Amino acid sequence: MEALAEDYADAGRGVSLVSDSESGESPGVSSGTSSDGTVGRRRCRRRQDARGASRGGGDGSRRSAGGQDGVGHSWVGARALPAAADMLARDPGDLRKDAAIRGRLAGRVRNFPHVAGNFPTTVYVPVRLGPEQREALDAAYAQLRAALGPGLQPLAVGGGVSPGDFLEGGHISLSRTVPTRREQREALLGALSRKLQGGATAVGGPFSLTFKGLEVFENDEGTRCFVAFALSGGLRSVLHLISSVDEAFRELGLPEYYPEPRPHLSFAWAEGALAPALRRAAASASSTPGGSSAGGAGFRARAGSVRALVGAAAFAVWPHGPARVPE
Asked: Bigger pLDDT: 301 or 297?
């Protein structure tokens, strides 16, 4: 699900994600537009200037995401993943129109081209994080943050960095994030439910999960990295779930999951350039003698369902379903 942050970003450019149609204006027909488009161009320029100011780039300056060597994509203002609550907002259209959220999305790269009518879709196991689980995440984050500094940010509601800010619900990804069409939704949900509930690798019912040890993952483009608790207990069952999801995706011609999946629960992220340092810090946190470190302690949870997130709508597809999850 980490890739959901990319699905609302403009591909490789720090430009606005709001089209004339989204902002309530039609190209070339706004009141007062001259036949040669001069006024329209002026208005467009004023809107661009205002958007740049809202992102902290009022002077029009741009910087490279790759540092002094110039490698990477241009961006405007502070770089940060959007808060999970923003990414899972009810209306993705409103998400793209919100200037503050657009600023946080600047410079991100899509996993796939934007096509009108496509919905970013992913399948996952929701993991409820109670006080015990959040305590383990807070401790691990604090230890890693001490080693990396402010370059490490939590995957948290509102983008906060204080202890206790982690999501009430984490997740284990069972698929890549892929584009699907509205007309595919019913067939996809049916295939997922059929394979997960009665396929060759179906799992009978809820099971326990154990997370222990820290691992670092990078996105396909290498632009950012994520630190996660690795799944140890319940691994075989989760791998069966992934196999079932792959079978359903194959029926619809969708990309399958990675060839050698490593199920995990991500809880913090950093720019891709920090991946080596984050790996060293994670290895140190996981290998403290006696298992007394934050990463070595780990935590337990329970897998009670599988959900498919299609755009902003979540559907339960295992052990029952398909059924829309109430908002």
From this structure: 301
Q: Are residues 311 and 183 in the same domain?
A: yes
- Asked whether residue 62 is assigned to any structural domain, the reply reads no
Q: How confident is the model at residue 155 (pLDDT cuts 50, 70, 90)?
A: confident
Shared domain for 237 and 170, answered yes or no, is yes
pLDDT value at residue 130: 87
Q: CATH number of the domain that 137 lies in?
A: 3.90.1140.10
> Is residue 97 located within the same domain as residue 123?
no
What contacts 156, CB < 8 A, 6 or more positions away? 83, 84, 165, 166, 167
* Tokens describing residue 132: 């015990």
Q: Could you tell me if 78 and 154 lie in one domain?
A: no
15-55: pLDDT as tens digits: 333 333 333 333 333 333 344 444 445 555 555 555 555 44
Task: For residue 36, give its domain range.
Answer: 7-56+72-105
Of 106, 124, 114, 91, the residue nearest 57 (C-alpha) = 106
